[in-house]
């Protein structure tokens, strides 16, 4: 497993491998407990009285890093005397970070704070007793009034709230290369799957072999979820994750067949690509489309690619597939006081603006001014208010991490064998194991 080096955000620009993290991820946990892997981190902080706040994310590059940098700057203003330490482990959707984090939590070596998705994913950490109750801080920081009730409900478990949301992201968006579409004579956004396939054919006819760029497992799960929303409608889609909709439903079979057809328009090296690699195919004009969350808006901006547009996945209608990044206070954090200052910044109006204007997401707070945001986020803010909201399994709002892992691996297999019945059975089995009884 390759770990990219991560630059310390705004603090000296030191490049370091998250050595402790990499070791944990390859399963050499014993080395850690025996102290055989002496990390430079261990000597420079920790213990009571630490003024370092290690912030663990997977936001290491592009628009994701730009968002984090914005938050770090605000933290510097709000939390004098505290120092940000970048614990980021690169890899889209936390593909590497989550296993590293799990090992660290298991070892009793938590970062001071880490990102976790609101909803089912957060519940995993709550159920495992790994994070602290922040309800009293919510009261003193006025956060219950700042966030929409639906989000508060998603964050609340047995009356307690354990994390502070930084944003709302949208997952079911298709990003396009305008020039490629213009060359194929496409002037209107497709609104259903048939129209989308017709447009994919038009781009293909211009010599672009794989007009729909996609990456590995979790990015395929995102595409599959979008097709499920189209074929089942938003309510039945949500029911897949609550147990109200049977995964053996004929609508799911149709969705798998539609998804299979879409895969014929994608790059054959998909299983080796992260979302940014697939995004590059769009930027380079080697593909016309990519289904991806709206962190892509920020990333394209950060990479100075301006010739893009977006539309809601065809057939999703007025559905906003949401997810929210939130930050927690792990049990055993070395610097709880500094971490609370970080969390307060995350939840504040200034923190949310500093973060979201460069992250592609919209603020979770309801008191933001749309005019402060780029064009894409202004549209997303309006949609968030009026559209039907459904959760995402690929990004933890709909399903637990165990379920997500099972889904990713089923999609990975499908990418190779294209066996419709096998995928449906694997998803039905996962649901029977993981749905909350
Ligand atoms: C999501 C996360 C987003 C973005 C994305 C791609 O899980 O919520 O903020 O980072 O992964 O890495």
Automatic annotation (TrEMBL):
The keyword Cytoplasm does not apply. One of its GO terms (cellular component) is ATP-binding cassette (ABC) transporter complex, substrate-binding subunit-containing. InterPro entries: SBP. Signal peptide: none annotated. One of its GO terms (molecular function) is maltose binding. SUPFAM superfamilies: Periplasmic binding protein-like II. The keyword Membrane does not apply. Transmembrane segments: none annotated. It holds the Pfam family SBP_bac_1. It comes from the Bacteria. Keywords: Signal, Transport. GO terms for biological process: maltodextrin transmembrane transport; maltose transport. Belongs to the bacterial solute-binding protein 1 family. This is Carbohydrate ABC transporter substrate-binding protein (CUT1 family). It comes from Paractinoplanes brasiliensis.
């Amino acid at each position: 497993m390759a770990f990219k080096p991560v630059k310390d955000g705004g603090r000296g620009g030191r490049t370091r491998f998250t050595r402790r993290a990499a070791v944990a991820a390859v399963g050499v946990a014993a080395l850690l407990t025996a102290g055989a892997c002496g990390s430079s981190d261990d000597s420079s902080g920790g213990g009571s009285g630490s003024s370092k706040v290690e912030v663990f994310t997977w936001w290491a590059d592009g628009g994701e890093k730009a968002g984090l940098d914005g938050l770090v700057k605000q933290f510097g203003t709000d939390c004098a005397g505290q120092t940000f330490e970048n614990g980021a482990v690169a890899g889209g959707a936390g593909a590497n970070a989550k296993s590293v984090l799990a090992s660290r939590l298991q070892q009793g070596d938590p970062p001071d704070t880490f990102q976790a998705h609101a909803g089912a994913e957060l519940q995993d950490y709550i159920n495992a007793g790994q994070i602290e109750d922040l309800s009293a801080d919510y009261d003193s920081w006025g956060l219950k009034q700042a966030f929409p009730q639906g989000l508060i409900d998603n964050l609340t478990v047995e009356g307690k709230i354990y994390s502070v949301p930084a944003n709302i992201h949208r997952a079911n968006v298709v990003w396009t290369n305008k020039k490629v579409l213009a060359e194929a004579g496409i002037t209107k956004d497709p609104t259903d799957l048939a129209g989308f396939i017709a447009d994919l054919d038009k781009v293909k006819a211009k010599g672009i072999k794989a007009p729909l760029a996609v990456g590995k497992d979790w990015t395929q799960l995102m595409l599959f979820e979008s097709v499920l929303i189209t074929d089942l409608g938003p309510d039945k889609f949500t029911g897949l994750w609550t147990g109200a909709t049977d995964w053996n439903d004929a609508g799911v079979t149709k969705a798998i067949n539609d998804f299979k057809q879409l895969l014929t328009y994608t790059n054959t090296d998909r299983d080796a690509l992260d979302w940014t690699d697939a995004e590059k195919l769009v930027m380079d004009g080697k593909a016309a489309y990519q289904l991806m969350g709206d962190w892509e808006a920020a990333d394209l901006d950060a990479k100075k690619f301006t010739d893009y547009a977006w539309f809601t996945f065809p057939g999703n209608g007025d559905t906003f597939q949401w997810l929210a990044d939130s930050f927690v206070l792990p049990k055993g954090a070395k610097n709880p006081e500094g971490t609370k200052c970080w969390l307060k910044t995350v939840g504040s109006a200034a923190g949310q603006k500093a973060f979201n204007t460069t992250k592609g997401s919209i603020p979770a707070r309801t008191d933001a001014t749309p005019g402060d945001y780029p064009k894409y986020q202004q549209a997303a803010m309006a949609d968030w208010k009026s559209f039907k909201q459904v959760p995402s399994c690929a990004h933890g709002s709909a399903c637990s991490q165990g379920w997500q892992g099972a889904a990713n691996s089923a999609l990975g297999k499908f990418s190779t064998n294209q066996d419709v019945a096998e995928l449906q059975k694997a998803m039905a089995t996962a649901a029977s194991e993981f749905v909350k009884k």
